[in-house]
Amino acid sequence: MCGMPSGVSKQASAHERDLVRPTAEDEVAAAGSELVGGPLGRHALLGTSWWTPVRVIALVAIGMFTLGLVQKAPCYNGAWFFGASSQYTHACYSDIPHLYQGRGFADGLLPYFDRLPGDMQFLEYPVLTGLFMQVAAWLSPGGGSIQEQEQAYWLVNAGMLMVCAAVIAVCVTRTHARRPWDGLLVALAPAFALTATINWDLLAVALTAAAMLMWSRGRPVAFGVLLGLATAAKLYPVLLLGPLLVLCWRAGRWREYLTALGSAILAWTVVNGPVMLLAFDGWSKFYTFSQERGVDFGSFWLILAQNSSDPLSTEAVNTLATLLMLLCCAGVAALALMAPRRPRFAQLAFLIVAAFILTNKVYSPQYVLWLVPLAALARPRWRDFLIWQACEVMYFLGIWMYLAYTTSGDAHKGLPTDGYHWAIGVHLLGTAYLCAVVVRDILMPERDPVRRTGDDDPSGGVLDGAGDVFVLGPAAHQARHAARPEGARVEWGGPGGTGGTAGSL
C-alpha cells in the first residue's frame, strides 16, 4: 500500500498541530468560518491534503483579484473612453489605460529617454515601475483602435499585477511560519481587490513582501536586494530600513543590518545607475514631481487647503510634512528602544509606513496596498483589520463620488466637497486606529496576538528571540531578555501576566 513514509507523515502532522488556528483564538474568524463549514478541525490539520494553507490562500487571493477585475467591467466596456464622470460613478477608474497614451507607450516612446509632448516631459514613475509599464506595452497587441489598444494594455497589466498579488499573499502566508492562515487577511481584504489595478503599486508591494519573508528566514542579503528593488519601484519601501536599524541596535545585530543595507544600496544602484547616467532628466522626473506636486486627494492637507482662504504653499507643505514625518520617526525609534520588550519588526514596519502616508500631502486610494501585508503581520486580528478595511472602502467610494460631482457639470452627481472631507477623515481615522492598536500591543506585549500564541518575532529573522544589548527608559532597569535556544518559543502569560522565555523545543 503506497503512502508517505511514517517518519515524514509524523513530522508533517506534528508541524500541522503546531500551527496557530485563527478560528480557535479569534471570535470573528470563528464566526466567519461558518460560511465555509465551520472552524478548522483536528483531522483537517494532518498535512496530507493537497489543500495546504499556501495553496488555499494563493487561490483565494487570485479569486478576489478576479472579482476586482469584474468590478472594473463598466469602465472596460466604455466608461474609460466615452465619459469623464461615468468612470467615477461606477467607481472603476484606473490610471493604466489613460497613461498608455498619455505617457507615450501608444506612440512607442521609451520611458526616461524620449521626451513626452505637453507639460509632463518625462514619465513620473521610478525606474523599475517604468520598466514594468514598458514590458506590458511590449506585450500588448498594437492593432485596432486606440480604445482596443488601451483595453489590451489594461488586460496585460492586470495579468502581471495578478501575479504580484499572488506573490504578496504567499509571502505573507509563509513569513509567520506558525500562523499561515493570517495570509487570508491579505487575500480577502476588500480594499486590496478594489484598488489593485488603479496603478502599478503592487509591484513594489510584492517585492517588499518578498523582502520581509527573506528577513524572517535570516537572509539579510536577499532581503537587502529585494528591498532595493522595491525602492526602485516605489519610494516607501526604503522606510523599512529605519525601524530595522533601531531594532538591530537594541539587539546588537549590526553585521546583519549593515549587510542588508549594503545589499539594498547595491541593488537600487544597479537598477537606477544606467538610467541616471544616460538620461538624468528623465530619471529625476519622479523626484522633482514628488516635490513640485501640490496638495492632493486623500490627505488632511487637502481639507486644510480647501477650507482656507489663504492655503499654504507647496514649499510650506513639503517642509511641514517632512517635519511631521521626522517627529513620527523619532517617536517610533523611542518606542522601539523604550518598550518593555523589543517590538516585532512587522509592527514597526507598519507604523513607519502608516506615518508616512498619514503625514504625506497625498493619500491616494491605492496606498492602502502598501499597508495591507504589513497590517496582516503586525496585527493579525480580524475585528481590527475589518474596521480599518471598512474605512478604506468608504473612502474608495467617497473619492470617486467626489470626482463624479466635480466632473458632472451642473448635474452635480456625486459627493460634494464637505462630504468628501468626511470621507477623508474616515480613512485617516481608520489608519490611525490600527496604528493605536499596534502601539498598544507594543506597550503591552501580553495583548499582542502573535506573542500570546507563544512566538517572539517570527518576522524578525535574526532578531527572533535575540537578547537586548541597548535599552532606554524603565525597560533598561529590567532583567535583560535572554536569547532563547533555537526552536524554542517565548510563552507569555495571560492578560496582566509577565513574559518570560520557555525552552520548549
UniProtKB/TrEMBL annotation:
Keywords: Cell membrane, Membrane, Transferase, Transmembrane, Transmembrane helix. Its main location: membrane. Residues 1-20, 483-505 are annotated as: Disordered. The chain crosses the membrane at residues 50-70, 122-140, 152-172, 184-215, 221-246, 258-280, 316-339, 345-364, 385-405, 420-443. The keyword ATP-binding does not apply. Residues 493-505 have a biased composition (Gly residues). InterPro entries: GT87, UCP010361. It holds the Pfam family GT87. It is a multi-pass membrane protein. The keyword Transferase applies. It is found in: Cell membrane. Belongs to the glycosyltransferase 87 family. This is DUF2029 domain-containing protein. It comes from Streptomyces composti.
